[in-house]
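Customer escalation, tier 2.

The customer says the design service returned an amino acid string that "doesn't look like it belongs to this structure." They asked us to rerun it and document both sides in this ticket. The original structure tokens are below, unchanged.
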């Protein structure tokens, strides 16, 4: 597995498992395509399910790796533990977007809704792309109906 972003791995009790890549929201010097630079969000929040982190020699082990010959500019990493009811997943409002960047929030959910699962992944592929693979400006309107009722903040 390789990519151009740092990757997070955790010890799950038997091996190191891939969690996600990070810092895609903070590319230094990335062109936004209009002669400007892509604005960066210096804070990133990643959810790590409890079953993917087990103690190893009395400590939890999280590894941040660079798979390519790149430099990650990290000055602080925090690990927050959250106790929650069984059957509830905790998710963040983290998303890749332009400013204004959202204030950090956590949500407790009992089930996830995947609005494009029935349609597959063909929907976003309908947009024209340039030679670098970047899609033309577009938006998708999703109606969750009753599936995404308002919930309390965690």
């Amino acid at each position: 597995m390789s990519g151009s972003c740092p990757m997070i791995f955790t010890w799950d009790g038997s091996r190191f498992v891939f969690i996600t890549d990070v810092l895609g929201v903070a590319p230094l010097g990335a062109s936004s395509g209009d002669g400007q630079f892509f604005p960066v969000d210096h804070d990133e929040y990643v959810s790590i399910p409890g079953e993917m982190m087990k103690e190893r020699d009395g400590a939890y082990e999280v590894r941040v790796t660079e798979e390519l010959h790149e430099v990650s500019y990290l000055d602080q990493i925090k690990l927050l533990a959250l106790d929650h009811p069984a059957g509830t997943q905790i998710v963040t409002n983290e998303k890749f977007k332009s400013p204004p960047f959202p204030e950090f929030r956590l949500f407790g959910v009992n089930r996830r809704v995947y609005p494009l699962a029935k349609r597959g992944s063909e929907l976003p592929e309908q947009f024209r792309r340039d030679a670098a693979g970047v899609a033309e400006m577009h938006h998708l309107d999703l109606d969750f109906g009753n599936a995404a009722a308002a919930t309390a903040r965690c």
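Tier 2 assessment: The sequence is consistent with the input. Residues 107 and 150 are 10 Å apart (CA to CA). The longest strand covers residues 16-21. Sent an explanation to the customer and offered a walkthrough call.
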